[in-house]
Write a structure and sequence with these properties.
The chain is of the alpha+beta class and 285 residues long. It contains 8 helices and 10 strands. Helix 3 packs across helix 4. The longest helix has 35 residues. It is elongated and about 145 Å long.
Length: 285
């Protein structure tokens, strides 16, 4: 065997270089090789770069690489060598640790744990013992201490003379006539006083009603919606025209005398005029 043959066996080129060299030796471009194999140019370039993950699963690697090897006339065993993953190398530590070093590391680690535990636990224990040994305050009572208070001898109770009876009021003769309360007496006195006669125009509402009151000059004196229990009073000469919405729920008095609204009412709406003397009269339309 020649020297060149021995060198080829000892220093075999990577498969990617061998693929490129065989393709160039046959004068094929990447596009031509891809066209003959019906593969994309990117797959051809990946095989020549030995970018096997680009080809996908191992079954695709064997298929693409086997077709390419047959095209270039290279041994098909190369495809099986590439598709079979090589065993991962076993890592062997370069330097072994001595037993003394391991013992020191373990002791140091345990010592650090003990110190950290003491730093955390000891203050808590000391504080707890301090509160346990603290003196408890005595019970506070309101009872007097007999040892402090002086002994008191019993003394005779002082004799207090009864006060002389003060002269009382002279006796009053009882009467059979009942005494009337002040409120009853005031009411009776009020009944004796004659009530002042009502003057002017008085409107008393027994239900909700709308009203409009105009003055003699046509000026609006009042316009409102009044509820039951309301009352309005107008002096003579103050009112010129009155309109009542719900006339059935309104009582009209003139100088204390009730006024019949029937002549002035139409569809439950009463309209009447008031003269300068206060006399009601039919309204002027």
């Amino acid at each position: 065997m020649s020297t060149e043959g021995r060198q080829d066996v000892l220093f075999e080129d990577p498969i990617g270089i061998r693929l490129r060299a065989a393709r160039e030796k046959q004068g094929l471009a990447l596009e031509q090789a891809g066209a003959q194999l019906k593969l994309p140019v990117a797959i051809i370039e990946a095989m020549e770069r030995e970018d096997w993950p680009r080809l996908g699963a191992p079954i695709y690697v064997r298929s693409y690489l086997g077709s390419y090897l047959r095209l270039l006339g290279l041994p098909s065993e190369l495809a099986q060598r590439v598709a079979t993953p090589s065993a991962a190398p076993v890592l062997v530590p370069m330097a072994s640790r001595s037993r003394l070093r391991r013992t020191l590391d373990t002791s140091l680690r345990n010592g650090i744990y003990l110190v950290m535990t003491a730093v955390l636990v000891v203050p808590v224990v000391l504080v707890a013992r301090h509160y346990q040994n603290a003196e408890r305050p005595g019970n506070v009572t309101l009872e007097a201490d007999p040892s402090v208070l002086p002994a008191l001898e019993p003394e005779a109770a002082p004799i207090v003379a009864a006060p002389a009876a003060a002269p009382g009021p002279e006796p009053v003769m009882a009467s059979i006539t009942p005494v009337q309360p002040k409120s009853t007496a005031a009411a009776a006195a009020a009944e004796l006083v004659p009530a002042a006669p009502e003057t002017g125009l008085v409107l008393r509402f027994t239900g909700q009603s709308w009203m409009e009151v105009l003055g003699p000059d046509g000026r609006r004196v009042e316009q409102a919606l009044l509820d039951a229990g309301a009352e309005r009073r107008y002096a003579a000469g103050e009112v010129g025209h009155v309109t009542l919405g719900n006339a059935a729920a309104v009582q009209v008095f003139h100088d204390g005398k009730p006024l019949d609204l029937a002549p002035y009412r139409a569809a439950n709406v009463a309209r009447f005029a008031v003269s300068s003397e206060g006399e009601p009269a039919p309204a002027r339309h």
